[in-house]
Design goal:
alpha/beta; Rossmann fold; 3 domains; five-stranded parallel sheet; binds 6-O-phosphono-beta-D-fructofuranose
């Protein structure tokens, strides 16, 4: 891959500082540097990528063997090499596809049977006295369903859904306060059924239900790969929805972990969500590189992070209901590709990452866009916008939202020169030195790259497309970087140390052997505990 990275560095040297706006002198620039699937458009023309750079980026995809590795993933090969597992979240949405073999065994009958059980159970809950569902999980067992339930609130016709993740007692206390234990269903979502936060919250919820007149043996369900542990917790098998270890936590919203979403929007809505994901799978497998949305999203990301060296990227959905998407993508992208070594254990050849962050527009405009426009670090931005909202009587709000979204990407590209700023200040009545001083504060360097994803409306199908789009983007970036996107060893050390610190914090063990800072912090905290 050295030759491909070198070619890209040469492209950067040749084009760095070039005006992105000037690229639009080529007629058709926008269409040439966009990709489309169905009614979804990905416009990456407001970047410094030209034909030669795109060809060099596609060189990365080819040299890394993305096509073969993509098929290896879809066909159940153990591509999660450090854990010896297949990576088959795509099987969960393979609604009418063919068999998918893992070790020669077709997993589809079990996947479809579990989906049927979920449908029956979701309908049963929706038709019952249950008024509230509390999903207890963390990471991939929380972020996906929490994001999707909020995203699809216009389709929500089931019981209210709540999400508890943090081990901070404030989270569960605030959530349970005001709920009726007799009409609440608690879903314990944990792939391993060992995660300390989830199990602590689950035990607290069970005690609450017992105390408040509910019936935990009838009002708890579990989503997990461990039959034994769910049984030990006291959840009967008919309310346990299992999945296999080839579904990674951050890729699990498509199966049992999505049960709260299915209860919220109904099995038909959930099917549409799966179909959206499946539609993106088909596009990803069939479309030519330059027309392939996940591939181009990944390549634009690699260009900005690994070649241009921009250390973070902002995800900016102009869609209030996607407010949790940046958090969801943070886990998806950073837990997947935030690694320091390649598959063979050798250090990665280029920096991994980047940091993914963001917030819903227009809120972010009044918070951190100042830095995005005038700060000294370039933050490539990924805008998202629906052509239509759901509020038929508030169309003017949506038009304003669209105008803001498009204006931001235009402003980032166009900027404002010193002369234009002077002109503005002159018109405002400034003169002389004060005009000059004020003008400098109003300069926007511009030439800041962004992409825009446009979709017709945020319905279940479209959300499925968006989530699968980002999953495959992570896959492509991971393959090009040569890393395993499907393990997460980086979360282990903190967990181990927390376990060893717990008795120290509780006072049953000494902080001896801890570093001076940790020992001081424990002692200080203990002194301030009543
Ligand atoms: O701590 C990381 C992690 O393992 C994530 O990958 C996962 O989504 C989360 O914890 C929750 O794990 P589980 O579903 O097993 O409780």
């Amino acid at each position: 891959m050295t030759a491909q990275w070198d070619a890209l560095r040469a492209r950067l040297e040749e084009t760095e500082g070039r005006s992105i706006l000037s690229l639009f002198e080529t007629p058709d620039r926008a269409a040439q540097f966009s990709a489309q699937t169905g009614d979804m458009l990905f416009d990456y023309s407001k970047t410094n990528i030209d034909d030669a750079t795109r060809a060099a980026l596609i060189g990365l995809v080819e040299a890394a063997g993305v096509a073969e590795k993509r098929e290896a993933m879809f066909s159940g090969a153990p591509i999660n090499d450090t854990e010896g597992r297949a990576v088959l979240h795509t099987a969960l949405r393979n609604l009418d596809g063919g068999p998918v073999l893992v070790d020669g065994f077709d997993v589809m009958p079990d996947v479809l049977a579990t989906l049927d059980r979920m449908r029956i159970y979701a309908n049963h809950v929706r038709d019952s006295e249950i008024t509230d569902v509390v999903n207890i999980g963390i990471g991939g067992s929380d972020l996906g369903p929490a994001m999707a339930v909020e995203a699809l609130s216009p389709y929500h016709d089931g019981p209210r859904c709540h999400f508890v993740s943090n081990v901070d007692g404030a989270h569960i206390a605030d959530t349970l306060r005001g709920l009726d234990a007799r009409t609440t269903l608690v879903i314990v979502a944990s792939k391993t059924f060992t995660t300390i936060e989830t199990m602590t919250n689950a035990r607290t919820a069970k005690a609450w239900m017992q105390d408040q007149g509910g019936n935990p043996s009838a009002q708890f369900a579990a989503l997990s790969t461990s039959e034994e542990k769910t049984r030990d917790f006291g959840i009967p098998a008919e309310r346990v929805f299992g999945f296999e270890d080839w579904v990674g936590g951050r890729y699990s919203v498509w199966g049992p972990i999505g049960l709260s979403l299915m209860i919220a929007i109904g099995p038909k809505g959930f099917d549409a969500f799966l179909r959206g994901g499946q539609d993106m799978d088909r596009h990803f497998r069939a479309a030519a590189w330059a027309e392939n949305l996940p591939v181009m999203l990944a390549l634009v990301g690699l260009w900005h992070a690994q070649v241009c060296g921009h250390a973070s990227r902002a995800v900016l959905p102009y869609d209030q209901r996607l407010a949790k998407l940046p958090d969801y993508l943070q886990q998806l992208e950073m837990e997947s590709n935030g690694k320091g070594v390649q598959m063979d254990g050798k250090p990665v050849a280029v920096p991994s990452g980047p940091v993914v962050w963001g917030a819903a527009g227009t809120n972010g405009q009044h918070a951190f866009y100042q830095l995005i426009h005038q700060g000294t670090r370039v933050v490539p931005c990924e805008f998202m916008i629906a052509a239509e909202g759901h509020e038929a009587d508030l169309v003017h709000h949506h038009q304003l939202l669209i105008a803001n979204c498009l204006a931001q990407s235009e402003a980032l590209m166009r900027g404002r020169s010193l002369n234009e700023a002077r002109e503005k200040m002159r018109a405002a009545g400034f003169t002389g030195e004060e005009l000059e001083r004020q003008a400098h504060h109003r300069v926007f360097t511009g030439n800041r790259p962004s992409t825009t994803l446009v979709y017709p409306q945020l319905d279940p199908f479209t959300l499925g497309q968006i989530v699968a789009l980002y999953e495959h983007r992570v896959f492509v970036e991971g393959v090009v970087l040569g890393i395993n996107s499907y393990d997460q060893w980086g979360v282990e050390l903190g967990k181990e140390l927390a376990t060893s610190l717990q008795p120290v914090v509780e006072g049953s063990a000494d902080p001896q052997g801890k570093d001076g800072s940790t020992a001081q912090l424990v002692t200080f905290i203990r002194r301030h505990q009543s």
